[in-house]
Amino acid sequence: MFSLQGITSGIQSFLHARFSASGVLIFESLIVILLATTLFALLGLVLVWMERKVAAQMQIRLGPNRVGPMGIFQTSADTLKLILKEGLTPDGADKLLFNLAPFVVMVVAMLLLAPIAFAKGFQVWDINIGVLYITAVSSLSVIGILMAGWASNNKYSLLGAMRSGAQIVSYELSAGLSILTIVVLTGSLQLGDIINAQQNGWWLFKGHIPVIIAFVIFIIAATAETNRAPFDMAEAESELTAGFHTEYSGMKFALFFLAEYINIFIVCAIAATLFLGGWMPLHIGNWQGFNHLMDYIPSSIWFFAKTFALIFLIMWFRWTFPRLRVDQLLNLEWKYLLPISLFNLLLVTVIAILGWHF
Amino acid sequence: MTASQIIFYAISAFILGAGLLSVTSTKIFRAAIWLLFSLVGIAGLYFWMQVEFVAAVQIVVYVGGIVVLIIFSIFLTQESGKKMPKPSARKTVFSVLSALFGFGFTYNLISKYGFPIGNTKPFTVAVSDIGTQMLSTTNYGYILPFEVVSMLLLASMIGCIVIAMKTPEQKPGEPKQIKVTNNEDAPAPTVVVIPSVPEPLIIAEV
Amino acid sequence: MFLKEYLSDIYHATKSLLTGMKRTGYYFVHPKEIITEQYPDNRETLKMADRFRGEVIMPHDANNEHACTGCTACELACPNATIKIITKFDVTPEGKKKKALDTFVYHLELCTMCNLCVEACPTDAIKMGQNFEHSVYDRSMLLKKLNKPGSKIREGVE
């Protein structure tokens, strides 16, 4: 069976035989940097194309169809255009922070990639506080947006940044609480443990209705945290032109745009890991034959299939629902999602203590 | 010098540099951002020490919470984009003196402690142990401070809700009672009875 | 009751959101519903809607006859002076002089396709055509004469 675990351990032993510990560290870091950058570029191209196609189909249109078959090279052409464009810095902007902000957003997205398990034994850093690490680092992304909004010296940008800040800070709570339900059920913060706990079935199926509620809340909160419609108050084209990245152009704009899609990928990957078992194939209890059959599909395919299914769901939201107002957004969080997820967490704790889950 | 040492010195230089810039910057927003970088650097140092839990908490509490709060309050203040005036010479001298005193004090303490050399026992604490210790009622358990802090937070949250709460809306048709203070020398608030109006007409609440 | 209202709120919100998602999901899995016209690839088979207004035309029948009496009702109805009617006097067989159309001048570059001239016409001599490919290299080519050379008014139209 095709496995990435063999390749990684092969490289590890190959490097160890030839270099000192520091040399191995440097080489492995270089490989990880190369892989992460490639993944980012590919994801950016694929997800933007996918979004445009999905949007078009849902609005009874064709979408990109000129550059290459089915328009698959459209995003490459767009990227080329953005690279060649001049990166303007407005007069009166805080130049340093203005130019730093896109990189902060990008670096945060890169940091979030570290604990995600892409396949069996294919993970950059199986940190023992994985889930806490993710919630901590994802709270940093708001800083980049606030920096961009303030440094642009533009009222649209500032308003967008303020909205985005209020939004991310409030939705982090319910996202964190719904993640906690899985932590309570597993008893570990480590993503590797959480995946292994789903050996005999994914949490979404094992955890009864409370876990399904937690999953729905997590998807809503994740949509809000990535500033996507229907929660795209931070950029709200019709109100704030483009919100916090109004003044950005060229490659700096492209970095914001890319970071948005990378963040979608990451939150969907986390949702897939926590609720749908990450790279774990679909296993049902003790059906040995069925489980064995499912194991023949490589784990990386399972991971990407689940993640892309969730990404599709979030795109489906975007092209169906109208944008919320700011007060509606905060009402939804503080009056509905937060009380429900608190109550839900209590329920899950009772289930976990009494051992009612499968 | 091993790679680990190089990383340590790089992170330390980053923290100190960002801290220095934060203190010397004349733009208040930039100062906040440098403070943020300094705090992120400290979290990085915790990661380097492999105490991931403390590092994550550092990010959640200081970077995600406090600095965002500071930035929000900067946004809401007037003239946050203006350059602040240079501090006067007297102020500068005293700040430098207090910084030097702090440095000397800390250095004195550290040098007197005399770290045992060669004690490089790996330092690993499982997160579940931290959780158990936090809620433990046995000796060296932290249940009492934990609960006291929770009560404090609860009290402050209830206080916030009370401050933010709107006065309950009156039913249409009932006359409204609104207290009006005319000026400072009015001895007591006069109560004015206004027949019902569609919009609430609150002049001042006493 | 508060809790009942709260729960029914959540129920109705979820239901309405799912209704919306059902519609877009239906479109997503039914590519036949796509209404995009890939002009100019489908120029030969392009079918314009009946109500589309591309330009003002004057239909002529097989005998090169139109129905315009030269009454200038369309010229008066036009809000931005797109139409200019030049009349002449025909001599009828009885020796009477009769007002008739000489040239129907139509400024396509000024026309907003508002349809007021067609509505004003008492004899239905003009209507809106469906041609929309109007781009030319010189503005003067947009000035059109709608009655064909040698055409005359149809018998019996007053």
From TrEMBL, chain A:
Signal peptide: none annotated. The keyword Transmembrane helix applies. Its main location: membrane. It catalyses: a quinone + NADH + 5 H(+)(in) = a quinol + NAD(+) + 4 H(+)(out). One of its GO terms (biological process) is aerobic respiration. One of its GO terms (molecular function) is oxidoreductase activity, acting on NAD(P)H, quinone or similar compound as acceptor. It is a multi-pass membrane protein. It is found in: Cell membrane; Membrane. It is an enzyme of class 7 (translocase). The keyword Membrane applies. Its EC number is 7.1.1.-. Keywords: Cell membrane, Membrane, NAD, Quinone, Translocase, Transmembrane, Transmembrane helix, Ubiquinone. GO terms for cellular component: plasma membrane. InterPro entries: NADH_UbQ_OxRdtase_su1/FPO, NADH_UbQ_OxRdtase_su1_CS. The chain crosses the membrane at residues 24-49, 96-118, 130-150, 171-191, 203-224, 253-276, 296-316, 336-356. PANTHER family: NADH DEHYDROGENASE SUBUNIT 1, NADH-UBIQUINONE OXIDOREDUCTASE CHAIN 1. NDH-1 shuttles electrons from NADH, via FMN and iron-sulfur (Fe-S) centers, to quinones in the respiratory chain. The immediate electron acceptor for the enzyme in this species is believed to be ubiquinone. Couples the redox reaction to proton translocation (for every two electrons transferred, four hydrogen ions are translocated across the cytoplasmic membrane), and thus conserves the redox energy in a proton gradient. This subunit may bind ubiquinone. HAMAP family: NDH1_NuoH (MF_01350). NDH-1 is composed of 14 different subunits. Subunits NuoA, H, J, K, L, M, N constitute the membrane sector of the complex. Belongs to the complex I subunit 1 family. This is NADH-quinone oxidoreductase subunit H. It comes from Segetibacter aerophilus. The gene is nuoH_1.
Automatic annotation (TrEMBL), chain B:
It is a multi-pass membrane protein. One of its GO terms (molecular function) is quinone binding. Keywords: Cell membrane, Membrane, NAD, Quinone, Transmembrane, Transmembrane helix. The chain crosses the membrane at residues 6-24, 31-49, 55-77, 89-110, 142-164. Signal peptide: none annotated. Its main location: membrane. One of its GO terms (cellular component) is plasma membrane. It catalyses: a quinone + NADH + 5 H(+)(in) = a quinol + NAD(+) + 4 H(+)(out). Its EC number is 7.1.1.-. It is found in: Cell membrane. InterPro entries: NADH_UbQ/plastoQ_OxRdtase_su6, Nuo/plastoQ_OxRdtase_6_NuoJ. NDH-1 shuttles electrons from NADH, via FMN and iron-sulfur (Fe-S) centers, to quinones in the respiratory chain. Couples the redox reaction to proton translocation (for every two electrons transferred, four hydrogen ions are translocated across the cytoplasmic membrane), and thus conserves the redox energy in a proton gradient. PANTHER family: NADH-UBIQUINONE OXIDOREDUCTASE CHAIN 6. Belongs to the complex I subunit 6 family. This is NADH-quinone oxidoreductase subunit J. It comes from Segetibacter aerophilus.
From TrEMBL, chain C:
PROSITE patterns: 4FE4S_FER_1 (PS00198), 4FE4S_FER_2 (PS51379). GO terms for cellular component: membrane. It holds the Pfam family Fer4_7. SUPFAM superfamilies: 4Fe-4S ferredoxins. Keywords: 4Fe-4S, Cell membrane, Iron, Iron-sulfur, Membrane, Metal-binding, NAD, Quinone, Repeat, Translocase, Ubiquinone. Coiled coil: none annotated. GO terms for molecular function: 4 iron, 4 sulfur cluster binding; metal ion binding; oxidoreductase activity, acting on NAD(P)H; quinone binding. The keyword Metal-binding applies. This is NADH dehydrogenase subunit I. It comes from Segetibacter aerophilus. Residues 58-88, 102-131 form the 4Fe-4S ferredoxin-type domain. It comes from the Bacteria.
